[in-house]
């Protein structure tokens, strides 16, 4: 029997997405160092334009540090409803080519184009056509990686950013991977990277030449995954329409506050979460979650699965507020963050069937 043909995977990643949308919609921001973030000591950067990145500004960086690195930066508060709308437009473009789409976030997605709707001969052509449509229809740019699997496609999409495309063919995989630092592999954070370096494994090539048994002994099951990635092997398929498991919203306070001072924040977050949940027409959340982070960065979560589900943002807020009673820390405790979430989503139809079973 012949081996199965490799998949054709495209990873599309919008370039500096939030910042690019802001620059597109406000011509006076074009060519300027734009930082999408609220100002404040506790705010973090959501996105930075390429002009701001030249100064070292990066996503997830404290906003106050971004301001020090780039004093001339223009701070723009994020508008996630607008970004979601643009994200939907990009996915409409993807859907012209394949139904096998796995969104990772608002600004990136995997596409399996092994068979494509347009009948194009190669995945390279598909990626190029998608990028052209994004540029012409949305006045934005995207980068793309084309490869036989998801892991490689994601690395490839970052290779020629911004507004670039990189194609990795099967016979090129080994030579491409070998010189890469192990930190480029998915799941390898600072701690794992340090452990790999201590074992003399600095590049992906070092990993590829290691004994799989040694890696499993040192890193457990993840050692097997590392060994496969180093060979360029990733059998994970593109997962379409991953069901929602949780919806949440959280906010960091400008100053640490006592527990009895967070009610208004919880009510506001509950309204935001409820609005998002209303878009889930096929699934219903069963669990309500309250999240808190103390001044000492201790994270607490309290949850409840009520017999009767809330039917409004006000009812959701009331349940979330009631969970404060289950926080058993001293009154002097101060909190830096609060969050509200809905979890344990279940298919609405399945829930209705269960309801019928327990009637009478």
UniProtKB/TrEMBL annotation:
Site (Substrate discrimination) location in chain: 18
Cofactor, how bound (note): Binds 2 magnesium ions per subunit.
Pfam families: IMS, IMS_C, IMS_HHH_1
Residues involved in Mg(2+) binding: 13, 107
Subcellular location: Cytoplasm
Keyword terms, alphabetized: Cytoplasm, DNA damage, DNA repair, DNA replication, DNA-binding, DNA-directed DNA polymerase, Magnesium, Metal-binding, Mutator protein, Nucleotidyltransferase, Transferase
Active-site annotation: 108
Catalytic activity: DNA(n) + a 2'-deoxyribonucleoside 5'-triphosphate = DNA(n+1) + diphosphate
Chain ranges of the UmuC domain: 9-189
Any single Gene Ontology cellular-component annotation: cytosol
Keyword Phosphoprotein belongs to the record: no
Family: Belongs to the DNA polymerase type-Y family.
Subunit relationships: Monomer.
PANTHER family, alphabetized: DNA POLYMERASE KAPPA, DNA REPAIR POLYMERASE UMUC / TRANSFERASE FAMILY MEMBER
Protein name: DNA polymerase IV
Species this chain originates from: Ahniella affigens
């Amino acid at each position: 029997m012949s081996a199965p043909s490799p998949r054709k995977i495209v990873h599309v990643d919008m370039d500096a997405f939030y910042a690019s949308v802001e620059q597109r919609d406000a011509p006076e921001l074009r060519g300027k160092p734009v930082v999408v973030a609220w100002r404040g000591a506790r705010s973090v950067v959501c996105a930075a334009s390429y002009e701001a990145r030249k100064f070292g500004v990066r996503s997830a960086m404290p906003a106050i540090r971004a301001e020090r690195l780039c004093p001339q930066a223009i701070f723009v508060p994020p508008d996630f409803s607008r970004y979601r709308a643009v994200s939907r437009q990009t996915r409409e473009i993807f859907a012209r080519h394949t139904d096998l789409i796995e969104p990772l976030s608002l600004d990136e997605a995997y596409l399996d184009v092994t068979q494509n709707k347009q009948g194009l001969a190669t995945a390279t052509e598909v990626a190029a056509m998608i990028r052209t449509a994004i540029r012409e229809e949305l006045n934005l740019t995207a980068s793309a990686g084309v490869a036989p699997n998801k892991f490689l496609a994601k690395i490839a999409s970052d290779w020629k950013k911004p507004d670039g495309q990189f194609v990795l063919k099967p016979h090129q995989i080994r030579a491409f991977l070998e010189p890469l630092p192990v930190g480029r592999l998915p799941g390898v954070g600072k701690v794992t990277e340090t452990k790999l370096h201590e074992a003399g494994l600095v590049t992906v090539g070092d990993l590829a030449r290691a004994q799989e048994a040694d890696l499993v002994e040192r890193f457990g099951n993840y050692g097997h995954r590392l060994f496969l990635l180093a060979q360029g092997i990733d059998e994970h398929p593109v997962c379409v329409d991953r069901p929602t498991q949780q919806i949440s919203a959280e906010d960091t306070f400008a100053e640490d506050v006592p527990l009895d001072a967070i009610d208004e924040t919880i009510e506001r977050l509950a309204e935001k979460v409820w609005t998002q949940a209303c878009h889930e027409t096929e699934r219903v959340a069963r669990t309500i979650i309250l999240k808190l982070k103390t001044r000492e960065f201790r994270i607490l979560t309290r949850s409840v699965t009520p017999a009767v589900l809330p039917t409004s943002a006000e009812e959701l807020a009331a349940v979330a507020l009631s969970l404060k009673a289950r926080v058993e820390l001293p009154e002097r405790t101060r909190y830096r963050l609060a969050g509200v979430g809905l979890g344990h989503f279940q298919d609405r139809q399945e829930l209705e069937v269960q309801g019928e079973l327990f009637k009478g």
